Amino acid sequence: MRPAWRERIGGLGRMRHFPARGVSALQFAPARADGRTVELGTFTGTLRQLSVTEIRALARDLRSEARTAEDEIVAMRAMLAIDDHLRGVVIRNRAAFAARDAAALVQAAALADGVDLPDDDVTCVARAASVIARGIVAGAAADLDVLALAQPWSRVFAGALVAA
Predict the structure, then answer these.
(1) pTM for the predicted model, two decimal places
(2) Does residue 23 come out as left (phi exceeding 0), alpha (psi in the -120 to 50 range) or beta?
(3) What is the pLDDT tens value at each position of the chain, 164 positions in all?
(4) Cα 146 versus chain centre, distance
(5) Pairing between strand 36-38 and 161-163?
(6) Which of 19, 20, 50, 162 is deepest in the core (most CB within 10 A)?
(7) What HEC string does 99-121 produce?
(8) How many CB atoms lie within 10 A of CB 90?
(9) Three-state helix/strand/coil letters over the chain
(10) Is residue 155 a contact partner of residue 84, using CB atoms and an 8 Å limit?
(11) What is the dihedral of CA 163, 143, 121, 94, to 10 degrees?
């Protein structure tokens, strides 16, 4: 007899297997539909080089993306879908570390430019960067969800897109 909780989530058929040994979050490079990949290491390297002007511009773009309730619903669905793709404990932990590192890199870039924290723009960009990093770690299954959240990040992703 199967436990009731397994019946509600559809049993174990939805589990995904991810490599557990020898692969760090920085080695994940999900393939995109256009044959290019977003590498987490390149994305976080780009975050490290953000200037205060770019952080403020990204924050303004991120806030303008969520003007209507429909925009917020699309973003929330994308974030929930990314969470859905992070099923295994190992991949969930890698995503948490990547999210923490992405947010810390945005804060470090702001501090290097002399911004006093907490700062609303830095917080906005750091939170968004952490979601993007989680989506990259989630892999190819979350590509469309990352793209749904990545419109304001076009200048950052331009450097993170590489030929597959």
Answers:
(1) 0.72
(2) beta
(3) 443 333 333 333 333 333 333 333 333 344 444 444 567 888 888 898 899 999 999 999 999 887 788 888 888 999 999 999 998 888 999 999 999 999 999 999 999 999 999 999 999 999 999 999 999 999 888 888 888 888 888 766 665 544 33
(4) 7
(5) antiparallel
(6) 50
(7) HHHHHHHHHHHHHHCCCCCCCHH
(8) 14
(9) CCCHHHHHCCHHHHCCCCCCCCCCHHHCCCECCCCEEECHHHHHHHHHCCCHHHHHHHHHHHHHHCCCHHHHHHHHHHHHHHHHHCCCHHHHHHHHHHHHHHHHHHHHHHHHCCCCCCCHHHHHHHHHHHHHHHHHHHCHHHHHHHHHHCHHHHHHHHHHEEEC
(10) no
(11) -90
Distance CA 57, CA 21 (A): 39
**Is there a contact between 42 and 162 (Cβ–Cβ < 8 Å)?**
yes
* CA neighbor of 46 nearest in space, from 125, 120, 116: 125
Q: Which two tokens stand for residue 87?
A: 């099923």
